[in-house]
Amino acid sequence: MAGMNLTLKVWRQNDAEDKGRIVEYKMSDISPDMSFLEMMDVLNEELIEKGDEPVAFDHDCREGICGMCSMYINGEPHGPEDLITTCQLHMRSFKDGDTIYIEPFRAAAFPVIKDLVVDRTAFDAIIQVGGYVSVNTSGNTQDANALPVPKADADAAFDAATCIGCGACVATCKNSSAMLFTSAKISHLALLPQGKVEAQERALNMVEKMDELGFGNCSNTGDCEVQCPKGISLENIALMNREFLGASLKSEK
Ligand code: SF4
Ligand code: FES
Q: Which atom number of ligand 2 is nearest to the Cα of residue 60?
């Protein structure tokens, strides 16, 4: 397949204070086998050669693990394909002559740092208030077979643990809610025996932190589940609500 000619409309913003604007770039002879980020690398090489400032974007693993490569592509977080991150997206998902809009994730709790890079440390703050177990598991580790875990629970915990903290759920939600992310972090611990000890307190602390940081409420649109590159299920939100309710009732006693 011959190289593609594309028009990129890229969000450029110098810093958090800058108003920002869309800037157009023409790209030619882009291989359909390139990844989306490789195409961005080509754009940046061309900009540097011309003496212009390259487009700032986050990336690290480039294999769908780290959750850094978060950006809006044609109005969808991580672009048009399901269940993949931006770094796993290939240019064959686009057609010769396409115009592609590339913007940062937008949410009050994720301020833009520069161009496509946003500050997602709010997620770290949510994890810090509860994303751990205090059960001592070092030095006195039990034989795994001494603590049987139902297969369904182990699978559900594992599925929840695949959340990479990319923020697509927040970016796509009209309320900028972090419910799917927070519930995934709560579920992957609450479903296992070691995590049950603090399950309710964890839910209370993490939900309170989420609200404090300016994430919106959940109004059950379900867009988060649709756009999540890891297929994190809405069922996690139901589990989080159960733990949170249990904790709230206890604290009222
Ligand atoms: S729940 Fe999905 S969309 Fe949200 S941060 Fe985790 S992996 Fe990303
Ligand atoms: S760069 Fe790590 S998930 Fe995309």
A: 1
